[in-house]
Amino acid sequence: MTDPKLRDIERKIDSGVSLDRADGVAMLQTQDIHTLGRLAKAAKERKSGRDVFYVLNRYINSTNICYANCRFCSFAVDESKERDRAVRMPSDEVFAKALETGINFNQIHIVGGHDPKQLTLDYWLPLMRRFKEALPHVQLSLFTAAEIDYLARRHRLSYDAIMGELHGAGLDNINGGGAEVFSPRFRAAVCPNKVDAAHWLEIHEVAHRRGVASNATMLYGTIETLEERVEHLIMLRESQERSPGFNAFIPLAFHPDGNELSSHGWTSGLDDIRMFATARLMLDNVDHIKAYWMIQGLKVCQVALAFGADDMDGTHGSTDEERIYHSAGTRSGQYVDDREFRRLIEEVGYVPVRRNSTYDRFPHDWAPPNHGVPEVKQALRPSASTPPAGKAVGAPHDRVSAAAEDAVGAPSN
Predict the structure, then answer these.
(1) Which of 187, 216, 353, 362 is deepest in the core (most CB within 10 A)?
(2) For residue 259, what pLDDT is reported?
């Protein structure tokens, strides 16, 4: 051990004392990477032993139309200005997309944007019920707190009421996006039109009380200070104490291509590793730290397993098209075979465990029973035609029903 601050941190951990802001900053600055990794790895193994998790999932970006205008985003499109790039998938297309590569998966992960024509209960509730009827073995991991805030304001409903509607239709998990960095300074400069930190946390806490689990994230690598990163982690820890329900924390490394913050460039490998380890040690009441391979790449995420991470996220379907990070220049691919996940995990000396959104465990060769739902049978027929993913919004089939559009009216302020 070459950093005396880490010795003090280890004493706190051994005594069961939660780490404070100064401890977090010290970990994000330390050059003693080996000791930091040892502490984080030990913390991981106290939580999940030798297990490292992955999920067979389907990932869909149902729309890229968004009017939040966040400065870090390369994904969002203003429909009025870039109609040729705009995508709005009808619900039939989303359903068909999920089934393109079969039904042997445990999670559907869908993220869109602040799209006034798609982000409505009229669109989502029937689609969610359709998924639950056709694929009862699959958990729905949908929306971010930012999308739910927008949805609640559009329908003039409280967070509890909107969550009741979503839970009733089958929502199992809320995705962790939209958190960015909780600092008011950061949000005013980077994402002023998005839900603020207090309401982001409130939405997740309401969801937890309703029986809906969630993840949490932080976007790092732009204008935030190290102190603001640590404060973000402390706020998540305090929220988890108030209303437990966060399953996992996912550090999201900033990607610079094609957005207003591109001058900040890419995060370094050391910054990524420190972030994983610091998150594991600060968030002592969150069970899992996810190294999302789509963001940092498989190699960094494999190393992260020795620095506190215990999850590498999902395989994605072989025809899935993640657009958010690929729009910003991610160097990862779109799909990883689950055998490769298991190989990478075993190479670090851990045991790969297949999971769903809420970390129920499955044998790696588990397969769902044939539920015999007619539309699933139809979708899986070799001759079944599947609409092309990402058809532009000008196409005839892209429109949400007129009733749905009339129900929500113009975007709210």
Answers:
(1) 216
(2) 67
